[in-house]
Write a structure and sequence with these properties.
Blueprint: E1 7-10, E2 14-20, E3 23-28, E4 31-34, E5 41-48, E6 52-61, E7 67-78, H1 83-88, H2 93-108, H3 114-119, H4 121-136, E8 141-153, H5 155-224, H6 230-251, H7 264-284
Antiparallel strand pairs: 1-4, 2-3, 2-5, 6-7, 7-8
Helix pairs in contact: 2-4, 5-6, 6-7
């Protein structure tokens, strides 16, 4: 209906290309325009000024011979003041952008190792953006932003990387576990040494108390019973301990069978053996 009245409508964020007898005439801005088709004027087409996005997947090889798929996202738009160049100079805008992306990525990634590709993806995106901006500006397009949104190594390489990472973590865990067990054993040994040291002190104090008690008993008995010597008192103490020992052996329900000489002479023999042992020890020292 608009063509019948020689009027056309251009939507917002869009420009229209007007031709006259097949030659570019002017760029029509958004709004309603008079288009006298009877005078050879015609509408060649529309050009969107909105930001568009193109995702490009490029397969390439890194410096350490690993094949990766690099996904670049290019955001671009046509410039209103160069609408005629954007409309007439390029027949396939997306194909042209894709070719430049391929060229830059395949020139940049083979210079880097796989780990460096992940670390320097911003530098790669910047290189792609600079190259596209320089090339596409002559065709009336502006590159708004370029992003490297994904880097996908081969599935076998990805599995190997995960296994390497897992092995490294297991090695760290094993070292930490070994260190913990080492500390535990050291602390256990220190505890046992301290326990034995304290037990030794207890035994030493026990023996010292026994010696002190025997000495006091011998001295007290000698003072209260005239005519007795220290030897007589020691013999009496040995007899007392002898009978106490016999009593304990008989009272124990699970004691093993023990054959000991029994009789009044046995105590004398035990006492003489102890005295001889002490004399031999004194002579050796």
């Amino acid at each position: 209906m608009g063509n019948m009245f020689c009027c056309v409508q251009v939507d917002q964020s869009t420009v229209a290309i007007k031709e006259r007898f097949g030659k570019f005439d002017e760029v029509l801005q958004p709004g309603c325009h008079y288009l006298p088709w009877i005078l050879g004027s015609r509408l060649a087409g529309h050009l969107s000024l909105r930001v568009q996005q193109l995702d490009v997947r490029c397969e390439t090889k890194t410096k350490d011979n690993v094949f990766v798929n690099v996904v670049a996202s290019v955001q671009y738009r046509a410039l209103a003041n160069q609408a005629s160049d954007a409309f007439y100079k390029l027949s396939n805008t997306k194909g042209q952008i894709q070719a430049y992306v391929f060229d830059v990525i395949r020139a940049s990634v083979p210079k880097l190792n796989l780990d460096d590709v992940f670390e320097q993806k911003n530098e790669i995106a910047k290189a792609v953006e600079d190259e596209l901006e320089k090339a596409m500006s002559t065709y009336g397009y502006e590159i708004v932003q370029t992003l490297i949104v994904d880097i996908e190594p081969d599935v076998h390489v990805k599995r190997a990387m995960n296994e390497i990472n897992a092995a490294a973590r297991l090695r760290v865990a094993a070292n930490e576990k070994a260190e913990a067990e080492k500390i535990l054993q050291i602390k256990r040994a220190e505890g046992e040494a301290e326990s034995k040291y304290l037990a030794g002190l207890g035994i030493a104090r026990q023996r010292q108390a026994i010696v002190d008690g025997l000495r006091d008993s011998v001295l007290g008995f000698s003072e209260n019973v005239p005519g007795t010597s220290a030897k007589d008192v020691m013999d009496m103490v040995l007899v007392t301990q002898y009978f106490d020992t016999m009593k304990e052996i008989g009272a124990a329900s699970k004691s093993s069978t023990v054959f000991v000489p029994h009789g009044p002479g046995a105590v004398r023999d035990v006492a003489s053996q102890i005295r001889e042992g002490l004399l031999q020890a004194s002579s050796v020292s």
